[in-house]
Write a structure and sequence with these properties.
Structural class: alpha+beta
Radius of gyration: 11 Å
Strand content: 15-25%
Strand order of the largest sheet: 1-3-2
Number of strands: 3
Number of helices: 4
Helix content: 40-55%
Order of helices and strands: HEHHEEH
Shape: globular
Distance between the termini: 25 Å
């Protein structure tokens, strides 16, 4: 069952069940940071996860997030 945007950090098992890509606020919640911070990192090319950009919209590749969380 999906959690609300104000919910606590998701578990690794929950992240693994997400779709192939996710929005930045959802990825930020999994990383434990604010979405504005993650947007800033993406803009500077310093995001710890792989992203795709479609015009002004950014999405995070879920597998890169899983890999990062598994290595922590």
């Amino acid at each position: 069952m999906p959690r609300s945007a104000t919910a606590s950090r998701p578990t690794l098992a929950e992240v693994k069940a997400w779709g192939a890509t996710i929005d930045v606020p959802q990825a930020a919640r999994a990383l434990g940071c604010s979405s504005s911070h993650l947007y800033d990192l993406i803009k500077r090319g310093e995001a710890p996860v792989k992203t795709l950009t479609f015009g002004r919209r950014h999405v995070v590749i879920t597998q890169s997030l899983v890999t990062l969380l598994e290595s922590a």
